[in-house]
C-alpha cells in the first residue's frame, strides 16, 4: 500500500526545490556569491542521496566555469541522477533546452580535460 503522506511530502518537497532553483538563478544573476553558496548547499541537502560520489575536483572546477543553468543541468544529471524531464521541470526550462545544456556542458568539460592533458 502506498503511503499518501509520503507522496504528498515528496510532492511538496519537489515544489520547494523548484522555487529554490529559481531563487538560486536570481542570486547568481545579481552576483551574490555568499547567498547563492548557502542556497546551493540547502538545495543539495534537500535532494535525495546522490546516486554517485563526486568525481575528481578538476571535473567540478570545470563545471563551475559554465553558465549557471548549464552548471545546474550537469550537476542535477551527474550528481543526482535526474532525467532530462525532471531537470527541465526543476529549473523551469524546456526539455529541449535542458538536453542541449547537458550536451554542451559535457562537451565543454571534456574539452577542458583534453586541454589539461596536453
Structure in words:
The structure is a single chain. The chain has six helices and no strands. It is an all-alpha fold. The protein folds into two domains: 1-47, no CATH class; 50-118, Winged helix-like DNA-binding domain superfamily/Winged helix DNA-binding domain (Arc Repressor Mutant, subunit A), CATH 1.10.10. The model has no long low-confidence stretch (mean pLDDT 81).
Mean of all residue-level pLDDT scores:
81
**Structural class of the helix and strand makeup?**
mainly alpha
- Structural domain count: 2
CATH third-tier fold name of the largest domain: Arc Repressor Mutant, subunit A
The beta-strand count equals 0
Strand content: under 5%
Overall morphology = globular
| Rg (C-alpha, Å) | 15 Å
Reading the helices and strands in chain order gives HHHHHH
The major sheet is characterized as: none
CATH class of the largest domain: Mainly Alpha
- Contiguous uncertain segments of 5+ residues: none
CATH homologous superfamily of the largest domain - what is it? Winged helix-like DNA-binding domain superfamily/Winged helix DNA-binding domain
How does CATH name the architecture of the largest domain?
Answer: Orthogonal Bundle
Fraction of residues in helix: over 70%
Q: N- to C-terminal separation? A: 57 Å
Count of helical stretches: 6
